[in-house]
Amino acid sequence: MSVERTLTIIKPDAVAAGHIGDIIKILESNKFVIAAARMVSLSKKQAEGFYAVHRGKPFFESLSKFMSSGPALVMVLEGENAIARLREIMGTTNPANAAPGTLRKLYATTIEHNAIHGSDAPETAAFEISYFFPGLELL
Ligand code: ATP
Ligand code: MG
Questions:
Q1: Do residues 127 and 101 make contact, with C-beta atoms less than 8 angstroms apart?
Q2: What whole-number distance in Å separates Cα of residue 98 and Cα of residue 40?
Q3: Would you kindly state where each structural domain of the chain is located, as residue ranges?
């Protein structure tokens, strides 16, 4: 295990519902350190670029619209094994299947409006961190 950085986004649904504080509280209690944070209002093009890996999928258009529908909080989190640990406490993509206590079980409403994003591998973390915070992908 080693110290890693990962990118998280508190998505527009969770920001609109007033859950920024609740989510950060859980992240901090799980020993994630916030290395950078920025409120963003993504354009549709920026959302498409961020989720480019999903281009062509049936939900891509709707996802890009959703992610550009309002303010979101983008953060770089640092900690031991941060990438996998964040994915664990987020829970599954579809909140209906998410384990009790996970962020998506607590705050997501649908498979699309699922409250939080987390990088899924070291390579995607590097791309996603550099998308919002160029240079910070290098530990
Ligand atoms: P994220 O990348 O946001 O952390 P994830 O890795 O759990 O989520 P992905 O498969 O990468 O899931 O999908 C990216 C996002 O696209 C999901 O978080 C969700 O908002 C949306 N999405 C995924 N699958 C569907 C679907 N079948 N219908 C609607 N939206 C979906
Ligand atoms: Mg993903």
A1: no
A2: 27
A3: 3-40+72-132
Q: Which residues pair with 77 in a beta bridge?
A: 6, 34
Structure token pair of residue 53: 């890996």
Beta pairing, strands 3-10 & 72-80: antiparallel
For residue 86, the ligand closest to its alpha carbon is 1
E strand or H helix that includes residue 73? strand 72-80
β-strand 116-118 against 72-80: which pairing, if any? Answer: unpaired
Q: What is the pLDDT of residue 1?
A: 72
| Ligand 1 centroid – CA 123 distance (Å) | 18
Q: How do residues 87-130 score in pLDDT, each as one tens digit?
A: 999 999 999 999 999 999 999 999 999 999 999 999 999 999 99
Query: Ligand 1 pocket check: which of 114, 129, 131 to mutate, most ligand atoms within 8 Å of Cβ?
Result: 114
CATH 3.40.50.150 fits 3-40+72-132, yes or no: no
Bridge partners of 117, per DSSP, are: 9
- pTM higher than the cut 0.85: yes
